[in-house]
Design a protein that fits this description.
This protein is an alpha+beta fold and 467 residues long. It has 16 helices and 9 strands. The relative contact order is 0.08. The protein binds heme C (HEC) (5 copies).
């Protein structure tokens, strides 16, 4: 009479499978215990414990199953040849040995389920973590990850913005992740990573979790300080009253009118979204206007519904121009404004090319020190630490914006929130060239968006009143 024990696999494949699964399970338990006690919490440790070992465990179980199945086929064939039937095992719970074997099987099975569920849960956490996104693909994510760490969204996880809602989007992102890992393994990933990103989570869903459209309304006073490239680095101020606007009560106005309730803007643009050809506006009342340019769109032009990231395309991965960076550093004291010609020299060293960030830091520090030693020896001696600090700050600025190994340099990622020499930004549409059949234009009057209260003035009247 066939006993339960007979049903247990006896083939090598199944044995290897069982041993592999048991070993992995034991290791997962051990590593989890280490993690709980606070030892070994780093990314590689967690990838091993919660992604690699569980995958091997599943492989072990599959091997065991396949081996058992092949063995059954072989047994059935042998039985057919000898003319006997192939009975199914009889489970007789009156036998102590059968009861023991069954209990063992249930316990092992239960333990496997618990271990796999726990490891699976932890594994998902690893896949969703900022470290995984930025370190697992360290080199190619470096520009975005380092900009993210310095942004107002440093505490928002990559997946919050990058993975769409729902299980489908999650699976999509993981399949995409596998593709990216293959690209990393074969060193064939694109440099720089193309932008705009097509699988972003819908901006309205993401951004509006934290930013409530009705909460950013009204005008905003903006003061920009630009330093001149003269001997004394003269600071000049530009003052704007920016009509940020939005949805206030029943009235939609100003810049956030584009995303106010009921307003829908669609546009046809080239894949980089730098050139916009047709704009279709639907108002809350349901009327439609189509603005068109004379230019012929390229064949790969795409339609898109305007949302937050058509203006805020750099909410997190913020790369600036050399002038913006130097002005900011002079304003917040990272670079001493009393160093003669420092703005001009800073612009010069930042725009030079260096093969790596390491070499840039060294070369920039040396170059700045040499400049003062040669041209202003007294200043160089008296303000030695200011000169050193300026060199270090400029090396840091270069390294925050230029990533030679990823072919990311100044202006690889233009910002659309405004208009400057990097990108026309708002003026991609507001250029008087987008016209309806009734000759209505998308306006480019300065006052539509802001009052320019002062432009590059040393001491603007408007600010005196506020002092
Ligand atoms: C607050 C939302 C947000 C967060 C958080 C965020 N991103 Fe992004 N990411 C964006 C947006 C928006 C873009 C640009 C989309 C566009 O221009 O179409 C982008 C673009 C990118 C790109 C494409 C290259 C580029 O610079 O345009 C990469 C790569 C990227 N992000 C990686 C990351 C990584 C890694 C993290 C976490 C360390 C992260 N992102 C966190 C919103 C976010
Ligand atoms: C998880 C919450 C969260 C999400 C999601 C989020 N933000 Fe923010 N955002 C913040 C916080 C926190 C700040 C910092 C506020 C501050 O410094 O005053 C901020 C700041 C900002 C600022 C002001 C930056 C500045 O320099 O003053 C803008 C603009 C902004 N976010 C746009 C966006 C956009 C666009 C998205 C969607 C792509 C987004 N945010 C998604 C939390 C979030
Ligand atoms: C038409 C372009 C445009 C669109 C679309 C847009 N914004 Fe803005 N937003 C701006 C500009 C311009 C500012 C002001 C920037 C500044 O202060 O320098 C701004 C400011 C903000 C601020 C900072 C407000 C403050 O007072 O500190 C937040 C937060 C913000 N936007 C979130 C969003 C969100 C969320 C969306 C999508 C629902 C969105 N924006 C859509 C152009 C836009
Ligand atoms: C995709 C095209 C597009 C882009 C990009 C765009 N706009 Fe507009 N904008 C429009 C259209 C269409 C209108 C409605 C026509 C008009 O009033 O001129 C409009 C209207 C406006 C208005 C008037 C809103 C009101 O009160 O009725 C302001 C202010 C404005 N835009 C500011 C901006 C700013 C600032 C930016 C850049 C940060 C920007 N726009 C980018 C298409 C665009
Ligand atoms: C469609 C909207 C729009 C129009 C039209 C527009 N601007 Fe602007 N402008 C902006 C936005 C948005 C910014 C960015 C504000 C900020 O830095 O936060 C800006 C910034 C500026 C700045 C500050 C630049 C700096 O870095 O200091 C100046 C100066 C300026 N605009 C002048 C003008 C003049 C002059 C006109 C008219 C010929 C004009 N703009 C038309 C939206 C517009």
């Amino acid at each position: 009479m066939p006993k339960l024990a007979l049903a247990l696999p006896r083939n090598t494949m199944s044995r290897i499978g069982v041993i592999l699964a048991a070993a992995c399970a034991a290791l997962i338990v051990l590593l989890s215990a280490l993690q709980i006690t606070g030892l070994g919490g780093n990314l590689h440790f967690r990838i091993l414990a919660f992604l690699i070992l569980p995958a091997l465990l599943v492989l072990g179980l599959v091997l065991a199953g396949v081996g058992w199945w092949l063995e059954r086929i072989a047994r059935r064939k042998a039985a057919q040849r000898s003319g006997s039937a192939t009975p199914l095992p009889v489970v007789d719970l009156n036998h102590a040995a059968t009861r023991g074997a069954l209990l063992l099987l249930l316990l092992c099975g239960g333990a496997m389920v618990i271990i796999l569920a726990g490891a699976g849960y932890q594994g998902i956490q690893v896949l969703e973590s900022v470290q995984f996104c930025s370190q697992a693909c360290h080199l190619q994510m470096q520009p975005e990850a380092s900009a993210h760490d310095r942004s107002p969204h440093a505490n928002v996880a990559c997946v919050e913005c990058h993975v769409g809602p729902g299980f489908g989007a999650w699976v999509d992102s993981k399949i995409n992740g596998l593709k990216e890992m293959a690209e990393v393994a074969t060193n064939s990933y694109p440099r720089p990573i193309p932008t705009p990103v097509r699988q972003l989570r819908p901006a309205r869903v993401v951004c509006e979790q934290c930013h409530w459209p009705a909460a950013f309304v009204g005008d905003r006073l903006i003061v920009h300080t630009h330093y001149s490239e003269d001997e004394t680095n003269t600071p000049k101020k530009t003052v704007l009253m920016l009509h940020v606007g939005g949805q206030a009560g029943k009235i939609n106005s100003g810049i956030h009118w584009h995303v106010a309730r009921g307003v829908r803007i669609r546009f046809l643009a080239d894949p980089s979204r730098e050139s916009i050809y047709t704009v279709e506006l639907t108002t809350p009342e349901g009327s439609q206007k189509v603005y068109q340019t004379q230019a012929v769109p390229p064949v790969d032009a795409e339609w898109r519904t305007m949302d937050c990231i058509d203006c805020h395309n750099r909410p997190t991965h913020i790369f600036r121009s050399p002038a913006q960076e130097v002005d900011a550093a002079l304003l917040d004291g990272r670079i001493d404004t009393s160093l003669t010609f420092i703005k001009r020299e800073a612009m010069r060293v930042l725009q030079a090319q260096y093969p790596s960030q390491e070499q840039a830091r060294t070369a920039i520090s040396r170059d700045i020190a040499d400049f003062y030693r040669t041209n202003y020896p007294e200043l160089a001696a008296a303000r030695a630490s200011a000169v050193t600090e300026a060199g270090a700050a400029l090396g840091e600025i270069w390294s925050n914006n230029v990533f030679p190994q990823m072919k990311v340099t100044w202006n690889t990622h233009p910002d659309h929130l405004g208009h400057d020499d990097q990108s026309p930004g708002c003026l991609r549409c507001h250029d008087n060239k987008h016209v309806t059949a009734a000759a209505e234009k998308i306006g480019r009057k300065c006052e539509l968006c802001h009052n320019v209260v002062a432009e590059d003035e040393v001491a603007p009247e408007a600010l005196k009143a506020l002092e």
